[in-house]
């Protein structure tokens, strides 16, 4: 991590959570910043709901969920539900006009007591009991801020 110990600890906890839930972990190929994306790519479906970056950011790439539909976040009501859960945490703001884009926040927002348990607490209906919350990036694709493409 390129950030302080608190953000590094949160990233490790997310990574450990992903491993303990047998999620697939995809690694970014950025030339300056590293990233990892835990998610599903199995018989229950395809969902990579967030990206953790070495600069201390977390991105929810909704635009990829819409371009390559990934249930349940291809539905506006589920994106709004995730928005509500995340914005309940101090330091996280996701405006309505970002629900079709790539909103982000700092890992340090997840440092406080219960901050990780809120968004990571329950499965999204109809998906998998292993994937329990936050939002999307296509493992077999990439988003560059303007578009998402299959690779």
What's the quick description here?
By secondary structure, the protein is an alpha+beta fold.
Q: Roughly what is the average pLDDT, rounded to an integer?
A: 76
Oligomer: single chain
The percentage helix is: 10-25%
- Radius of gyration (Å): 14 Å
* Percent of residues in β-strands: 15-25%
Number of domains: 1
- Residue stretches low in confidence (pLDDT < 50, at least 5 long) are 124-151
List the helices and strands and how they pair.
Elements: H1 5-20, E1 24-27, E2 35-42, E3 45-47, E4 51-53, E5 57-59, H2 62-67, H3 76-87, E6 104-106, E7 141-143, E8 148-150
Antiparallel strand pairs: 1-2, 2-3, 2-4, 4-5, 5-6, 7-8
Report on the architecture of this protein.
- This protein is of the alpha+beta class and 151 residues long.
- It has one domain.
- It is 23% helix and 20% strand.
- It contains 3 helices and 8 strands.
- Strands 1, 2, 3, 4, 5 and 6 form a 6-stranded antiparallel beta sheet that branches. A two-stranded antiparallel sheet has the order 7-8.
- The two termini are 27 Å apart.
């Amino acid at each position: 991590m390129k950030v302080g110990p608190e953000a590094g600890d949160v990233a490790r906890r997310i990574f450990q959570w992903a491993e303990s839930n047998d999620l697939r972990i995809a690694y970014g190929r950025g030339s300056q910043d590293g990233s990892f994306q835990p998610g599903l790519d199995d018989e229950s479906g395809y969902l990579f709901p967030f990206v953790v970056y070495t600069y201390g950011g977390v991105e929810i790439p909704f635009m990829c969920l819409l371009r390559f539909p990934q249930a349940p976040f291809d539905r506006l009501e589920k994106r709004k539900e995730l928005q509500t859960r995340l914005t309940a945490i101090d330091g996280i703001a996701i405006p309505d006009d970002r629900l079709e884009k790539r909103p982000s926040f700092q890992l340090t927002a997840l440092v406080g007591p219960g901050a990780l348990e809120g968004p990571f607490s329950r499965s999204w209906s109809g998906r998998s009991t292993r994937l329990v919350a936050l939002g999307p990036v296509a493992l077999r694709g990439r988003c560059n801020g303007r578009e998402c493409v299959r690779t």
